[in-house]
Amino acid sequence: MIYIFKFIDFIIALFNQLDFIQILLFTFMGIFLLASIYSLIVIFINEIHMKKEFEKRKEQRTKGSVL
Q: Kindly report the CA angle at 62 between 56 and 60, in degrees rounded to 5?
């Protein structure tokens, strides 16, 4: 718990050294980084889902051709 407060204190001390424009720049860079990571996770989950769906349809197609 003490480490969390030390980290927050470090962030506040870092922001005290920076200009307002630099703080905005870091904030938008952080938001963009989080959005990029989120989109990559969503794309990865979607690819897994589409692969399972493809396998299911392939299995149904082969069952239909046998019958």
A: 35
